[in-house]
Amino acid sequence: LTLLFETPICGTVALLFDFRPAGETLDRLFLATERHQYCVLGFDPVRQCFKTHAKGDLRDKVGQPNDYGALGSVDPLVRCVAVHMHEGLLRVLPMDPTKKDSGSTFKHPDSFLVRLDEPVCVDLAFLHGFKDPTVAVIYDCAGGSGGGRGAGGARRVLKTHKVGVRERDLSPGPWLGSRG
Questions:
Q1: Distance of alpha carbon 65 from its chain centroid, rounded?
Q2: CA-CA 20 to 30 A from 144: which of 12, 18, 107, 169?
């Protein structure tokens, strides 16, 4: 590997993933720190430097930190980003996939917080091929019958949610986790 570029990051990186807005030729990086600050970085090939496309604060006044660390994903059609940093809460950052101007892709003031029925979220990812942004969540389910891990029979369950960006809510997704 050959180092091409580097830039200092003020803070400990808790979350990092790439995405490519429609019509763009280069990816962008979504980066969040342990202190709940985020930025979206892109690369300017003309000036040969990184460019900050968006930045903001993901802090919430309620909730306990997620035991599994920060989790996040971007919708495949770049309609929103979901970040899980507190148990039972999901921060949704709407994006405008039609905007090519880097600074206007994110609509941070429109970000919203929704409650997850699953307090102990282990991982999450957006799914391809759905009309609405659809996020899959793996969570620990206490109790239950058969199999499982741990003394209480806890096990992991997969569940999906439709993310209503305009409605600012979650609704049941196409796959429902079985508890039986």
A1: 15
A2: 169
Q: Which two tokens stand for residue 130?
A: 């759905």
Sheet with 80-86, side-by-side order of all strands: 71-74, 80-86, 89-94, 112-115
Specify the DSSP class assigned to residue 127: P
| Residue (of 102, 104, 67, 57) closest to 87 by Cα position | 67
The DSSP symbol for 11 reads: S
Q: Between 68 and 11, whose confidence is greater?
A: 11
In the chain, the DSSP E strands lie at 13-19, 28-33, 37-44, 49-57, 71-74, 80-86, 89-94, 112-115, 121-126, 134-141, 155-164, 169-172
DSSP at 48: T
Average pLDDT, the chain: 83
- Rounded CA-CA distance 33/24 in Å is 26
